Every structure is written in structure tokens, then in C-alpha cells.
Fold each of these.
Amino acid sequence: MSPSLIDNYPTAGPAPTSSTSTKDTRPTIADQLIPTVRPSPPRYFGNMNTSLVESKFLTHPGDLGIVAVGFSGGQGKPGVDAAPAALFESGLLDQLRHDLGYNLHGHDAVHEYADLVPQHDPPHRGMKNPRAVSAVTKRIAEQVYAHAREGRLVLTLGGDHSIAIGTIAGTAKAVRERFAGRKEIAVIWVDAHADINTPETSGSGNVHGMPVSFLTGLARDSDEQFFGWIGDEHRISVSKIVYIGLRDVDPGEKRILRENGIKAFSMFDIDRVPIRSYGIGRVMELALAHIGADTPIHLSFDVDALDPMWAPSTGTPVRGGLTLREGDFICEMVHQTGSLVAVDLVEVNPRLGPAVDAAHDTVRAGCSLVRCALGETLL
């Protein structure tokens, strides 16, 4: 892993001039989107926070709320519930506390939510385990909200991607309350899959493929035990979600994306030939420009966005994905905006993988993504 240097970003005041300099100093989109690093100290660093980026929307940016979700009910492969413990055992919390200088809150245990999982949970509208997923995500929303309303950055470690119903709902509600309705969150969804199926368009019935449809209101149910607890205060606008890294999208999802004008960047956009190149840097500029510079951001990162070369231990791997460096860069760019308010890392499954070291490599990749999102720098 090689995070970007702070010196790569613009500083306050005019740049030094030189008669021999050939550097192009014209502002780019990234220059306009990424907060200026001023010579005076930012508002808050935490104990020894290495980030030099001033937070726009957090009153306590040095405080990090941790929600560890040991839940796998949104899909059918066991093991993803073991991811938070594996991330803890890898030393992630010590890295966040000692290397990045965060004050950690709520990080003592992995939540398994056994009290919320019914013994009998038949399908509803084709959804598998609907009562369990609904009840667990409601609890997660409450946990994330409790941190976010205090003005803390929130990190949720999953678990499968169905948990984003809860994480994003909790963030959305807290931001609306903290800013008296004047702000709504945007979501950057980094994933090989769109996860925007409705119960009716899903071929599998797995709810981890449906969270965005419930969060945007494209899928609804009046019964609280089937996600009826999601209210307007929990929802996000289709105009404030951006996908990055898509490469395995169901036919029904493609129709939903087109009909709703949802901004999405596939691997094709990232990999365009040089003469019409986007590349990950240009894609991030366009993604952030779409969101706007004055919008709180919730970053939801599915590790299967990475190519299986980098993250083999995940439930639905798809070849042809992001490199780890590209994934780290996405996280670094989002951090550099100063707009980040919440991060999810999901779908690490330590029990899956083609080789002995697969789980270790995937956990290590997940830790790298988290550290980059939370401000790790080389200098």
C-alpha cells in the first residue's frame, strides 16, 4: 500500500514561481473539490491524528465510532459474520488508535444480534430471511445513529452488504437532525454489484443485493418487520448516489439505473483506452463533482470491488476488478474532500478463498482500505 502524499494536493496561497518551471498550474476539478491544506493547524487532529484534512461536517472528527457487525443473513454463505473479529485480530483497532490517533468508541465487542433472528423466517416477496435482516438493520441504524448524532466519524465493519440498509439509514437520519434538515448525505457505493434489485427483480432473493432499492425508496413495505421501519428521515436521493467499480449488474438493475438517471462508473469507465482515458483519478473527479463539494459523504465499500487477485475471500468475487492501489486511492480521495462522515467495509469472508493465504490477503486489503479512508498518509 502506498497512500498519496499530502504534498500532492494544493496548499493555500500562490504557488512559488520560477523562470525555469514548466509545471502546468491551471486548476483541475480535483483542485476545486479537495479542501485546501492551510499552514495553520486544522480544527481538530485527535490525539495524534495524522490527517491534515479539516472536516467540514464532524464536530468531533478525532472521535471514531466503531460498529462491528457479525451478520451474514443477507446472503447464503457462512463466514462473512467472522470478518469483524478477523479485522480486529489483524490489529486494525490498534492501527486506528495508535497510528492514526483516533479516540475509539463502541469497539469492545462484535455484535451478533442473535436475539433478533427468528427461528422461523419464511420468504416474503421472494426475500430470504426478511425478518432477520429487517430487525438487524434497524438495530444497526440505531447504533450508527447514536455515534453520528454526536458528530463522530462512524466506521462499520461487516458482515454482508445488507447491513448498509442500517448504516446508511442511521447516518442519513443523524445528518438531517444535526443540520436541521439543511443537509442530506450522498453515498459512494464501491462494488462489483449494484445491489439495487427490488424484491421483484431479484433472481436470488438475497437481501444483500437489495439495500440501495430500500434506501432510495424504490422498494418499500408498510410492515415494520419487512423494512417498514425505514422512514423518509432514513432515505437517500437517487441523485446523491454514485457507483464505482461495477462489472456484474443484473438486467433489472440496469433498467433501474437507466430509468432513475443514477450515476454509475463501471470498470469500463476506469479502463478506457489512453486516447479517451478516464482512469480512477478522473472517475473520482467526476464522482465527487456529481455529489458536490458541500455534501456529507457516506462511503460504502464492498471488498468484492477489488479484483480477486487482491481480495479472494469474499462471497461473490468477480474477475476484472479494481487493484488494491485503485481501491486505496478511492478511499484517499474521499478522505481528502473533508466531507466523509461514515465508512462501511463489507463482504470480507475469512472462511472462503482458493488458497491458504487468501483470507489473510483479503483482511489485509480491508485494513488498507479503512486506513486510507481514515486519513493514513506517508508523511
Note: The longest helix spans residues 130-148.
Amino acid sequence: MSVMLFMDRVYMGVVIQFVKLSGRKPEKRYKWEEIKDDVELGNSNYPMVLVQIPMYNEKEVYQLSIGAACSLSWPSNRIIIQVLDDSTNPDIKNLMEIECRMWASKGVNIKYEIRSNRNGYKAGALKEGLKHDYVETCDVVAIFDADFQPDPDFLCRSIPYSVHNPDVGLVQARWKFVNANECLMTRIQEMSLNYHFRVEQEVGSSTYAFFGFNGTAGVWRIAAIKEAGGWKDRTTVEDMDLAVRAGLVGWKFVYIGAVEVKSELPSTSKAFRYQQHRWSCGPANLFRKMVIEIIKNETVNLWKKIYLIYSFFLVRKIVTHIGTFFFYCVVIPMCVFFPEVKVPLWGLFYMPSVITILNAIETQRSIHLVIFWVLYENVMSMHRTKGTLIGLFEAGGRVNEWVNNNSAPAMKSAKKSRFSMFRERLHLLELGMGTYILVCACYDVIFGKYWYFIYLFGQTIAFFVMGFGYIGTLIPPS
């Protein structure tokens, strides 16, 4: 597994360097021309755009997201803003409706849509939003989650790819993290996500292989959504599900890293763990459901099939989590009890060092935090491995669990006793793993001969810091 992960990282490193040196920007690989008013047709040559904003109890950010969408630079008669509100709090629903009415009074074509249930969660809301009669006039749909704020020129820079390239079904922009400096946990998240956007997405796009839709900050051709079968809620990664199905029917995707959309990273430990469970369980479950369909597909070429199954799913969504956890948190600590077992230096140090450098180099401002990043990622690999196994084998009741960051238990602010607050901060899995690694480290100090304890004590501290809840921000009780 380590070799598979190492080869994948080296491959992507080579490709991304070639892309940077050769200047293979999206506008050079695809036709791109600025859309302008026509002398005779006026602005009717602009495609009709639907902007969807799925909401769920978004009290803190709803004004920012709605305001950013309503401020997009696009002819006012060629855009419809659609607020899809699944909120369960009547006060928040009332605030959002008032906000939409305020923008409507300014001449913005904005629709406030609610449902009687939350079936399908986000996928259900997006699917229901496309059923309204006025959507029939729209050509493309731009999707922004509630905590995303696009710049006014977002549509002008992204939609021309769809207009001038009829085979392009998706245009994906990059995320920009406005709260990356909030705490150490958000800095570490930034390192991982910068690699995802600057390398993984760029490599998939530039090689015409495949890259997944990130669920937000993207523009879909509505015809591509319909041909792919529409939104489905069979997994917790409805965005990836749609992208895989659209790719299998022949649609091309464009990643435009130069276009950034402001967003926020989860800053509480519990909210981040819920997110990571969804991001690890969903892809594994989708792989289980679609691997045979990918193999049997006759539309895409063999290269795309191999890339999808091996690189995109197997290595990045399954092996990277399972391999990281079992090797660094189980196997290496256990080796101290068996002195006759020596882990090869290339597997223990050289390959992990190269993988770490390739991941961290894209966030040079945080390069000094690379040790913390490694230890923290190893801790999170435990949760990701659990989610991956649940998704692969559809074990337990959490395979389709969807917890919004704003609805995670850690985000509730009801009055609690000091004991209950302390209990909520305790995470037994992390404390258990930390204790196991601490025992291994102490044994290695006394009886070992390979100096594993240097790494083991550091990993122990990381597990205990997470286990006692001393990472991320805390939501004070009201």
C-alpha cells in the first residue's frame, strides 16, 4: 500500500511539474472567449444561468452567501438565484425569506424555495430545485454551498468554457480558505486541501482523465446532469456520484485553479471528524456501487477506466486511509515487541519523506508545520479508515449518515454542566490508540534497538491532544 501511494504521488508530482513548465492552462486546452453583448441580439447571447444555494440552518452565513450570489456580474435578465432552504428552525427560515425579499425588491430575480421534508439531504434539495418550471429556460447551473462567496466575475470567467466547448459538462473552481489562520487545525487542513486542489484536481483535468466535482463552486451544464441521470442520494457524496456518471457518458470536465471562491474550513474538532467520516465513507461506498459499471462501460477509453478505478478510487479514497493508519499507527508500534522484524528504511523513512514533501510543498507558508501535519493526519487516518471500511462493507447505520457542520453536536450551544462539557471533549478511540502507542514507546525505550520511540512519543502526544479535545476552536456555552 505504501508503494502504491508513493508511486501515485510521484506520478502526480511529475505531471504537475510538466503542466507548470509547459503552461498548459485551461484556456489553452479549451476554447475560451469573453462573452459580450451582441449588436443585434443584445445580451441574449449570454446563456441563461441558474444559481443554486442549498441552505440548512445557516444563521451565521446566509446573508454573505445570498449577497455574493446576487452580486454576480451577469445580465439581470439572464440569471435566476435559487435559495433552497431545508432549515428546520422557523426563525432562521423567516430571516432567509426576508433577505430574499430584500434582494427581490432591488430587481434581482431570486426564488426562495422550501420543501416539506429533507429527503435526500443536499442531493434531494438540488434535485427538487431543478424541477421548477422556470428552470426549463436555463442552460447551466452554478452551485454554491452556504458558506461559499464567489467573486462578482465568477460567471464571466467560468461559463465561457461551457459556451464555447459543447462537450464540457462541468467547470470546477478552486476553494480559498478565509479562516485558514484561525487555529492550528485549520492550518493543517489547508495543507491537505491545497494539495488536493493544486495537484490532484489539476492533474485529472490536464490529462483529460477524471476529477471529482467538489460539491460547490462549480458550473454544471444542465443537459449533462440530466443525461447522467440527475442527482442521487444513494451515498453521502452526491457530488462525486454525479461526476462519475457524467464522466462515464462522455462529458468532459475543466478545472480552473485561477478562479478562487472564498469558503470556510470547519474549526471545531467534532465538526471536522463528521466531515471526514462523510468524505471517506461516501467515496468507498460509491466505489462499491459503481466499480462494475465502470468496468463494463463502453463509452470511455481504457485509460480513463484505469485512472478512475486505480488512481482516483483505489489509491486515493481507500489505500491512502487504510495504509496510513495500519502502517504508522499499528504495524510500526507493534514492531517494537518483535526485534527480529525490521521495517526497511525505504519504507520507514525515505518513501514517507517524499510523500510528505510532495504534499506539503503546495503550502509553503506552512512548511514549518509539516511535523504537526504528519502526526495529525495519522490520527485522522483512524477515523477515515473506519469510514472507508463502513462504506466498503456497508456496515452499521452510519454508511449514509449526513451531518452538516452546523448541526453537529459540537456546534450546539445549549447550557451544559462542566462535567458534560468535559465528557464531550473526551474521545475514547483517540485515547485508546494513544495509550497503545505510549506502551509501545515505553517498551522501545527499555528494550528496543531501532529508536522507534522518537516517532512513537510524538504520535502518542498527537493522539492524546485529540483525545482530550485540545485542538480546534471551542463553542462557548450560552
Note: Residues 302-334 form the longest helix (33 residues).
Amino acid sequence: MHLLPDDVLRHLPRRSLAASRCVCQSWRVIIDDRSLLATAALLPCTLRGIFVQIGVPTLSGFFARPSPAGTRRPPIPGFLDLDYLDTNEIEKSLLTIVDHCNGLILLDHHVVNPATRQWTRLPPYPPESPGSDIILDGYHALVFDPAMSPHYQVFLMPYVLRRATVSGQWPPSPLLLHVFSSRTEPEGSTWRWEERSFVREGNATMGTIDEVCSSSGWEPFDTYSVYFRGSLYVHCQNNCVIRITIANHRYRIIKLPGDFVGNQNISVDPYLGKSQEGVYYALVIGLCRLQIWFLKEYQSSYSSYSNSYCGGINGDGGGMETTTMDHEHEWVLKHDADLGPVLAAGYTLNDGGQQWIWHNIDTKKKNKESLVKEEEFEWNDSDDENGSAGEDRQYKGYISQVFGFHPFKEIVFLYDTDTRVVAYHYNRSKVQDLGVLQVRERVSRSFSYTPCWMPDLPGMHN
């Protein structure tokens, strides 16, 4: 396989070449080592900032470091004004961020690439049945991995209303979901939703309909989803995650660690996200006790994620053979600490140009960004002690929000006392200050943004 001549692969289109990386490890090594895929630099491989949704509905903002001097790329992603979308002023004022996945942003009715200012309008949502106890589009989840395919999907996950009168276990098997895929050919000029069926693996469910409806203390529309290695993980009702394996049309229910629903000491929404090794879950107990859990999964039979995914993003497997996977899983507690002493001791301050900046429409109109050197924004990964000793200081603040995980490092972003955003290096128990973020309304959602610079994704408009 390593003897495959370069000129055979060089004649392939870029998208076909990207798909060829999925065939096997040997092909991926050849393509990467010989720099055959010129679009590698366009993939989402760097953290640019954090999208923050303030209230519902309202236009969001972007919390990020200023752009380095001499950069050719725009200092702020093309999301703040959205003048390029096919929306009127009323629709524009109601736009909210629903999800983010590998550089694409999911809005209520659009999929947007802020880096390239390209977008797709989603088709009208499927109608609800009159008097139904199930909301078909209770949760919206975005699926996109440009390293494997240029196509993207949106999943509508059902939500059981509290007034439900139906009985039985939830969710049922098979579970019918509505999915939008950029791979699906539009009818005429109109995109459409398609219905897919997923069979449950294992015996676990979210509970009976009554149990799901009676779970309290949590607003289900402020949840998150994760797409990782061909599977979609969605935080759903009754403190559960539903994991959908797209290629083989199966799903599994995974109970989240800790008792968020019944624990009265938890006042901050938990955060399900993706980081260095896969799926992570952050939970804040009391004022400043932080738990970070990692989902460790096992496979009873060998299966190639690349083979099952490549060409199979629409769920048909692309004609390639897939192996049914029987996963077992466990939540591993990676970190459990009271951050009061750490925050009381102080943290590394990003003075001057190192401060991250809050960008929204108002600040975009009023302020001009400072241009500084790239190296001033590298993460502080030294072994030097951060901040002052401060052992006798008492921390009087609290963690008011989990803003998300760094996608490539053991870092979680926290909102400290509704004032400052900090990066907590939990493997070293050290805190780095990113800057001030003071907003009047409640923060409802936040997403670590990794820009994707690949142009002309299927179905995207300028």
C-alpha cells in the first residue's frame, strides 16, 4: 500500500482525496505525509474563541482574543451582523445559536459557516401531529466532520411534554428521527427532511414516560450535543444521553454521572462537550466544586470508524461494509476539586493586549480591535506557578457558568462570578484569566469555536 505512486492520488479532486483518507490508515499516512491534501490547513484545528448566547431570543456575541497583526482572515467571524443571510430584520433579531460542530453554526433555520460567510437555509420543520404529546424537534443537533466528508446533517430529537398522557418506556425502539442532510438531493429547488429509523442497543431507557415527564429542575432546551467518531451524543431528558451511531442506524441510552436532576446543590447547567480524548461532562456542585467526567467506551467487536463513516454520512454506509458495534461504557472521573482555594490564590492575568475581547454588534460599531503579535496569545503552558500564593485569602465568588471545553487540550472554560472568563487547566489545577465579560442577561449557551475555512460546502450560498 505504501508503494502507491503519488501521481495516482494527485489527480483526484480535493473532496475525493479527503474521502480517500478514510479508506485505511496507510492511505491516510501517504496523503498527510506527502502533503497531497492542500486543504488540510482549512480544517477546524485551532480554537478561535467562544460564541456566547445571551438570552433567548437575541443576537449572540463572540468572546475571543484580538486578531494577530498581519492576518488575512477577518478578526471577527462573520456571525455578528449576519447581513449575508436571507433574513428580514424581524427574523434577524430572533436568530439564536442552537449548536456548533467543527466550524459550522446551527441557527434556528440556518446552517452557517462564519469563517467563509456561507450558509444554507433549512427546509420548514415537519409539522406536529394535532394534540401530540411529543415535540418532534425538541432538540436540534448538528453533525459535521470535514476531515471525513464535506457533507453535514441536522438531527431533530424528540422531547416528551410534561402533559404527556401516553405510557410506556422512552424512547421507543425503533426510534424515528427527522434528519436534514446536505447529501440528500433536493426536490426541485427545495431541500427536505427525511425520516430515519434507529434501533435501540441494550436495555437502558430514559425511564417510563411518567418518569421522564416528572423530572424537574432542568430546562431541556439549554442542552448540548457532541459529534465524535461517527456517533452523535445528545443530552436529553431525565439526565440521560442518547448516543446515535449514524452508519448502522442504532442508538443507546447512557445515564449521566452524578445526580443533576435531584441534587439541590447544583445551580449551574451541566455541560456535555468534546475535548482531547472524546466526550466530556462538566458538573458544578455548590458554588465552586467542579467535576469533570470522561466517557470511556469499549467495543466487543472490531470496527473501523473511517470505513463506516466515509461515504456513509447519510446513513446508507456508502455501499461499504460496516461492523455492528456493541458498546459498553463507563464514566471516568478525571477531576473533582473545590476551586475556591485555586481562585482565591489568584490566577495568571492577561494584561494589556492579551485580554480577550467581547464582540457583538454594538462593540463592532464602536471599537476597533488592537492588532498584536500572534505569540502573545499562546496558552501559558509553563510549569511556573500562576498568580500569588494567597493561601490565607478567602474566595467569595462562585462559578456562574461552564462555557465549554478546549477541543484539543485539558482545559475547561468557566465564567467566574458573572465577571471574568477563565481557562482552568484541570490537569495542573491552575487558572488563566482571559478577560472581562459583563452582560446583563443570562448566558444560555456557549460554544468553543474552531473555524473551518473550506469554501463551497454542499448546498452553501454566498
Note: The chain has eight helices and 26 strands.
Amino acid sequence: LPGSGNTVKGSRLSALFEHPLYTRPLPPLIDEDTLFNVNTDIRFDPKAAENPEWNGEGKDGDYAPTGEMSSDSYPNWLRFHIGINRYELYSRHNPVIDAMLKDLVSQRITSVAMKSGGTQLKLIMTFQNYGQALFKPMKQTREQETPPDFFYFSDFERHNAEIAAYHLDRILDFRRVPPVTGRLVNMTKEIRDVTRDKKLWRTFFISPANNICFYGECSYYCSTEHALCGKPDQIEGSLAAFLPDLALAKRRTWRNPWRRSYHKRKKAEWEVDPDYCEEVKQTPLYDSGTRLLDIMDMTIFDFLMGNMDRHHYETFEKFGNETFIIHLDNGRGFGKHSHDELSILVPLSQCCRVKRSTHLRLQLLAKEEFRLSALMEESLQTDTLSPILIRPHLEAMDRRLRLVLQVLADCIEKEGYSNVVEDDLLVEGLNTGTAPQR
């Protein structure tokens, strides 16, 4: 993983990842717990797939794995897919993730297409090893804050927020964000010249300042007024590794019970009913299992980033209701460092529930020896486009972490530790170095 293998001794990140809270093993995995069973699944036999690009030599002399080869010889993106299970998108110290991110930065882009749907332009990029990633181009500089009069649903998506969200999710030990890296792309050679998408190709032009620009097609911010321009033809963007194709691994989309109204005047039910969580707790899906606690994890993650735009969430269909929530689409985080959007924390303050593992990790990240802002800064230094966040955003995370812990402390005082903190640490006697508050 970036930031774990290649940091100096004395690294806070390495110390964090060696802490007992970050070394707990997964429950034993059976076939139902893995997204793919590589040994018996015909889809992973390239010969069975009869895809000429997978047999022998690739188009440009890049060797693709053949049917006789083991899964170790598969490209890193496929090894990432094979590693997905009921409990995590990727394991903590999996070298494949670091290798895959390096591929996204260095591999030649062989084709580009626009992603349909959405208010803003996103590109699907395919690489020489047949891996794919979602490219979100730079829309704002690091220093620009979201204007105070912008509604959350008309805010720009920020490429650096996507990158920072991946690092934050990993430091929180959720590992529910598909890996993301930054890349500097040549708009002429790596987008215009390799796209077969005529609609995209037609939107390229040269600006009065002699820069290459394009704007693509989408429902909101795709026009010459919102064109993306290079300097003269280089553009920054985030590349998020694709999840397995929906034909191979179906995902379910769920409505977030605390979704916003997406209306300029109307309020959502949770904003006007302080007992709204009691209603949610009685509905199927949230009345048993871990889903409500997973929503609390997502709430904390979003609050630390300042992301108000979580209307839906997804899970892998194969794992039913007992699985993690995938934290997709984080581009509207890190918009305002000068403002803490307390409404994002409403699910936590209404429900007063949290996993013990999450609570202990939050306490750990608030300690001076670790400090969330310092861990994020160290982790983000590994990205090609570093620095990813300016200091005020890093400091805002420390401030917000204290606010989360205060909400939980108030809950515990009001309702009692055992009614608030759900013990998910099945390993008895785990020495976490962080005493539970009683």
C-alpha cells in the first residue's frame, strides 16, 4: 500500500498499521465470503473466455496471461478484484494495491470514453493491461473553497477529494473506497488521440490563451463555460480503480435513510423529526445485522471530509445484507475547511450507536502520537500529485474528529456505554492500549 512499505523508520503511518487494532485477522473465509472463486470459476480461465487479447501476446507485445498460468500472473487490477470479500475491498498490507496504483499512473492509456449519467464529466480510461479506471479531471485549485451560496448538489466534484478520501478511508481502517491515485494526463495524446467517442472528440478546442480544452457531454457542467483546459495540454485528474464488471459481480443500490432532500426549500424527514432514527431501527435491513453501524461508519467518514452528498450507497449482491457499504463517489468532500457541516453527523447523534472497533480507532487517531492530520499528510505524500490537501483541510480533520468523539461521549453519558458501543471485537483480551470509556 502507498505509505506503508516505502516510509522511513519512525513513520506514524507504519506505527499505526502495526497497532493491534490494525492487525486483527478476518474471520475464516468460505466460498460464500469471496466475490470470486478463482479455482472453480470459468470466467477466470482466459481460454474459456475466448478473448484473444488474453492468450499469448497482447496487441503491443505486452504479454497477457494464458490459461496455464496461475492467478499470480494475472494483472494487478484482476488480482485486486479476486481479493474482494464479504468484509473488505482489499486487505491491509496487500502489495497488489500499491502495484495497481503504480499501473494507473504509468501504464499507457489505450482508449477513453465518457461515462454516461451524472452532472459532471467523467472519463473511463482503459490501459495497456486491459485494466480500467474512472478519471475525474481537475475542476478547482487546492486553495479554492466551495462558495458559501452553493447548494451541496451543485458543488463541483474535486479530483483531489477523491484521492484524499481513499487515504482517509484506509487510515480509518474501513477499506471501503476503491483505490485512487492522481495522474497528470496529456489531453492531446492521452485523451483526444485515443478516444473513439466522437461526441467527446468534437468538444476539443484551443482557447484564446492557446491551451487545449474540452468539455464533453453531461447533464450539468459540460459546456464551453465549464471547459477543462490544460497548461497547455497537461491536465490533472484522479483515477479510481474500477470495481468488477456488473455482469460478473452485481451490486445493489440502496437509498441512504439520511439522504438530503436535494431541493432548495424542502427539508428531509430526518431534519424535522428528532426521533427519526427510532423509525429507521424498526425497518428491515436496519433492525438487525451490522447495516446501521456501517451507516454510522460512513457518517463519520463523510463528516471528516465535509461530504454532504451521500444519497445512495452500494453493496455487492452476492454477500446479501451482511457485508460492508462501498464508499463510492467522494468528489464533493474537502470543499470547505473553514466550516464543519454538523448536519452530516445527525445520524450519529440521533442513533447514538457505533462499533467498538471504530470508536477505539477514532480515539487512537486523536492521540498526539498519531494525529489524523499528520497521518493523512504522510499518506498523501505518496501520491504523484502531492500535495493533495492544503494544511487548513488537514487541520479541519483533527477538529472534526474531536467533534465526533464529543458526540459519542455525550451519547455514552446519556445512554450508557453498552447501549451505545456495539462490541464487534470478538477477540477477547485485545490489548488496544485504549481503555473503553465507561
Note: The longest strand covers residues 234-241.
